[in-house]
Amino acid sequence: MAILSAFRPTDGDLSLAELARRCGLPKPTVHRLVRQLGTYGAVEISPRGVRLGMNLFEIGQLAARPRTLREAATPHLADLQEATGETVHLAVADGEDVVYVQKLESRRAPAVGSRVGGRMPAYCTAVGKVLLAHAPAEQIEALLSRPLRRRTPRTTVAPGLLTRELQRIRDTGIAEEHEESTVGIACVASPVLDDGGAAVAAVSITARVGVRTDRLAPAVRTAALGISRSLRHTVVAVPARDGAGATR
């Protein structure tokens, strides 16, 4: 996993020496593991170096939660993108980050560094803040107990300010971001809720800074509610487990 995780979104082929440097492993160890990974199609080995293999993509498509969400969300995201002409995202929480599981990009919208499968810190994104607002209190407390990195001059890092913002998001069902993760963009997001009221995902619109996010909020909210309803008619992606660990 250290070897597979060493690849970055912009990487093509990496040399064994570079992989060893990134992983902090001896080069002979990396060479042995790469050859083993190659036999399973997890990496491809060429004269230029090592790249991630197609088999990883195939396995990734089997991940139940993103697949179920994408199937339920696709028509609603398409309607949202067509109605607003802006870039839309679908994201899920993963620890203190968000992972984007779908992105429909608008040609007129500003370029955004997000990508399907990419992640961002939750505290500085609209999708992340709406998911944090519905997270357990101990998770929020743990996040706010240590310093947060300021990604732009407008990133909210003060625990008191962020706590009040998360409470406001819980009350309204809408989160906003104005140049907190990326200079030049604004976002508005709303949660996708399961039958029990837990946030299983978040939907957002990303546009140029200065856009009236209050005018986009109703459309985002409508899309999120539509996805929530659609999920109720699909197979549950992550089975609930009882205290003994048995699937219910």
UniProtKB/TrEMBL annotation:
Keywords, sorted A to Z: DNA-binding, Transcription, Transcription regulation
Protein name per UniProt: IclR family transcriptional regulator
HTH iclR-type domain sequence ranges: 1-54
Domain IclR-ED: 55-233
Top-rank taxon: Bacteria
Organism: Pseudonocardia saturnea
PROSITE patterns in the record: HTH_ICLR (PS51077), ICLR_ED (PS51078)
Classification via InterPro entries: GAF-like_dom_sf (IPR029016), HTH_MetabolicPath_Reg (IPR050707), Tscrpt_reg_IclR_C (IPR014757), Tscrpt_reg_IclR_N (IPR005471), WH-like_DNA-bd_sf (IPR036388), WH_DNA-bd_sf (IPR036390)
PANTHER family in the cross-refs: HELIX-TURN-HELIX TRANSCRIPTIONAL REGULATOR, ICLR FAMILY, HTH-TYPE TRANSCRIPTIONAL REPRESSOR ALLR
Stored Gene3D superfamilies: 3.30.450.40, Winged helix-like DNA-binding domain superfamily/Winged helix DNA-binding domain
One family name in Pfam for this protein: IclR_C
